[in-house]
Each structure stands twice: as C-alpha cells, then as structure tokens.
C-alpha cells in the first residue's frame, strides 16, 4: 500500500468513504516483543481522534504496572477535564495466567474468569459501548481453550457500528488471523534477555 493508496480496489459496490469507515479487526501476534506496545500506541492515536477507548488485559497480573496504563489513564483524565480526545477505560481481567499456566490447581478459576471477561466484552460490543478495544494477550485464553475461538469470531464479525478491535498475544489461532483485517507478526531477532539481562523500567514496563 504505497503512500496509503490501496494497490487494488474490490468490486464490492461500496464507495471509497464507506470502505474507509469500515471497522477494523487487527491481530498482533508472534514471538517478538512489541505486540501490546503497538496496540497501545494505536489506542493513543484513537484517543486523539476522540474515540472511546477501552483496554482489557487478559493475562498480566492486576499488580503488574505498565507505563502505557498510566499514560492512557492520564489521557482519560485530560478528556474528563478538558474535553480533548476521548474517554479511556482500563480493565485488568487476569491474575497472571501466563505465569501460572502450569499451576493446574487454579486453572479452572482462571478459565472461568476469562470466560466472564469475554462475556462482558461481548455485552459491550453489542451495546456499542466503546469505539476502540484492545484485548491484550487475549490469544492465550483462546489458545488454551478457555474461550471458544469460533464464538469470538462470530461475535466480532457481527459487531454493530464502527467498533475497532485489536487483539494481541502469541500463538493466535489460525481462524482468528484468517478473520482479521490487519495481521502483524512480531519476529524476534535478538532480545537483551538472550544475554541474561533482565527487563528495564521504561523498556519492558
């Protein structure tokens, strides 16, 4: 797509404006770093356009503080006080599932929480409660079978209005990437942890 111009124009009966205003389902997957960061960057762009932004973190612990959370919440406060941008919500749905996956003692509790989280998102989609959704690390509950992938795809395909949805995480199901409008795969070439270096503030969180 050189200079933002599509290389082909489908014969679908839609105008250029109609195609431009179609809702986007995006998936950021792969083994490389930056999937969530890219999605949060898109959320900031959406905020600037005045869209109602909601982030749902499905894996990271509620105690895990990430810099993008503070930044987006600050932007939400800017909207509340000045009217600039759009409203922002940030919800932590998980309890560190990615680190506790081998702990089968609590697996069913996490699965139940994941399904409840997805049900809430589906309800909000039906109500057109937000304009821009980030389902951060949502691929894991799908990959583990905690949430039914086919149900998710059907719900997203039938979502009303112009609601954009960005899903992040490794091992995105093939059916999900097939259904998405935008798929980006992050490929790791090199990472500081390969050399025994731990994550740094401002880089990893």
TrEMBL record:
Transmembrane segments: none annotated. Its EC number is 2.5.1.17. InterPro entries: CblAdoTrfase_CobA, P-loop_NTPase. Keywords: Transferase. The keyword Transferase applies. CDD domains: CobA_ACA. Pfam families: CobA_CobO_BtuR (PF02572). Gene3D superfamilies: P-loop containing nucleotide triphosphate hydrolases. GO terms for biological process: cobalamin biosynthetic process. It comes from the Bacteria. One of its GO terms (molecular function) is ATP binding. NCBIfam families: cobA (TIGR00708), PRK05986.1 (NF004637). This is Cob(I)alamin adenosyltransferase. It comes from Gordonia bronchialis (strain ATCC 25592 / DSM 43247 / BCRC 13721 / JCM 3198 / KCTC 3076 / NBRC 16047 / NCTC 10667) (Rhodococcus bronchialis). The lineage of its organism: Bacteria, Bacillati, Actinomycetota, Actinomycetes, Mycobacteriales.
């Amino acid at each position: 797509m050189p200079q933002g111009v599509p290389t082909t124009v489908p014969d679908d009966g839609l105008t250029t404006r109609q195609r431009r205003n179609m809702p986007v389902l995006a998936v950021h997957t792969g083994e490389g770093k930056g999937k969530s960061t890219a999605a949060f960057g898109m959320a900031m762009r959406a905020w600037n356009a005045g869209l109602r932004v909601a982030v749902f973190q499905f894996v990271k612990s509620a105690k895990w503080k990430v810099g993008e959370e503070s930044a987006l919440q600050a932007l939400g406060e800017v909207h509340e006080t000045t009217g600039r941008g759009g409203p922002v919500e940030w919800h932590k749905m998980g309890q560190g599932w990615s680190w506790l996956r081998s702990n089968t003692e609590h697996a069913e509790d996490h699965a139940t929480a994941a399904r409840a989280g997805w049900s809430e998102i589906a309800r909000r989609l039906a109500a057109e409660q937000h304009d821009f959704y980030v389902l951060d690390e949502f691929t894991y509950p799908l990959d583990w079978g905690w949430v039914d992938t086919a149900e998710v795809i059907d719900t997203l395909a039938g979502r009303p209005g112009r609601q954009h949805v960005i899903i992040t995480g490794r091992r995105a199901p093939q059916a999900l990437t097939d259904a998405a409008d935008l798929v980006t795969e992050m490929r790791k070439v090199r990472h500081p942890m390969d050399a025994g270096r731990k994550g740094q503030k401002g880089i990893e969180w």
